[in-house]
Amino acid sequence: MSILDRTMMVQEGSMAARRAARAVVNVAEAKARLPELIERAAGGEEIILARAGKPRARLMPLPEQARALRVPGKGKGRFRLRRGFDAPLDADVLTLFYGSER
Fold first, then answer.
1. Residue 24: which of 62, 52, 64 has the closest Cα?
2. Which letter, b or e, does each residue of 35-66 get, where b requires 16 or more Cβ atoms within 10 Å of its Cβ?
3. Sign (positive or negative) of CA dihedral 33, 38, 43, 47
4. pLDDT in tens, 34-49
5. What is the dihedral of CA 41, 58, 37, 22, to 10 degrees?
6. Which of 17, 24, 30, 73 is most enclosed, with most CB atoms within 10 A?
7. DSSP state of 102
8. pTM of the predicted structure, to 2 decimals
9. Is 46 in contact with 58 (CB distance < 8 Å)?
10. Residue 58 phi/psi, 5° resolution?
């Protein structure tokens, strides 16, 4: 048996395991047990929600999202502040912010 055949067998086995990990749950029952079903779905199980025995929706885990790390200084030179950016605001603008208190 070649490595390719073994790989195909492993893939078929994992697909069968995924198919076996499906549960069909009635919508009324799902309402009562939603937190439990969410945890089961987060654990990798696929849950089919059915109404009158007919599949209506699928509850499944979200794909893993790799968070990109922020790189300090990546935007250096891409943004320029205009001259006077941090100058004191005019009195009428300050009145809009603080009212007539100032």
1. 52
2. eebeebbeeebebebeeeeeeeeebeeeeeee
3. positive
4. 999 999 999 999 999 9
5. -70
6. 30
7. -
8. 0.45
9. yes
10. -130, 130
